[in-house]
Amino acid sequence: MTTEDLQTGVPIIDTRSLVDKVEFYLIDLFIRKKLNPGDSIPKETELASSLKVSRTVIRESLNRLKTMGLIESVKHKGTVIKSPDLSEILQKTLIPNILDQSTLKDIFEMRLVIEVGMADLVVQRATKEDIKHLYEIIKDEVSPSKETLFDIDHEVRFHGKLYEMTKNETLRGFQKMLLPVFNYAYSSGLINKNLANKHFLSHKDLVDVLSKGDAEQFTQAMRMHLENHYSRLFSMDAE
Hints:
By secondary structure, this protein is mostly helical. It has two domains: 3-84, Arc Repressor Mutant, subunit A (Orthogonal Bundle), CATH 1.10.10; 88-238, GntR ligand-binding domain-like (Four Helix Bundle (Hemerythrin (Met), subunit A), Up-down Bundle). It contains 14 helices and two strands. The protein has helices spanning 3-7, 18-32, 44-51, 55-67, 86-93, 101-117, 119-125, 128-139, 152-165, 169-178, 180-187, 203-210, 215-225, 227-238; strands at 71-74, 78-81. The protein has a two-stranded antiparallel sheet. Helix 12 (203-210) packs antiparallel against helix 13 (215-225).
């Protein structure tokens, strides 16, 4: 009998643990019952009886959901549905030292895409105080020269302020998650890759464009500011 004969007609074996199965069942149950943040879920004993599993399995499954930010314990109310903080969940799993280079590269690419895409929000929600703050940040930069590659501390301060200016809390949380990619640009050797054209729009150039209040111009300026990063990434793809 061949391997193919053995595989023919054999159902796929579910190798998930009992805790895994209960965890996914509970998530599906919450969706089917259309539970909203603040709604109570059944007690451990009720779930164990209904699913015919031990309370230990139920408790471990619920602990996983708490870690994911899907449920929380509320005094005098028991366990309730919670609206998860997506950036917080990602931050818990984004540990630079145990992420491979491919994953860090993907995150770095995501950072570039997000910062070009959020330009409209920055322009629409920027205040005079925000613009003034940005000019104060770039005043401390080593050099405004277009030949100067970014300094990690200035990069974090400047771009962190842009995320703050979006007034979007999820984006602001997301920016904290992206901080490790700044170190990746150095540790991977990405920042040291030679380019035919090292010219790009500086942080000062960006603030000058932003102060005009034109979203389309600022989007283009942000893309030009990040041009060298895109070029380095594409050159890595070609290797």
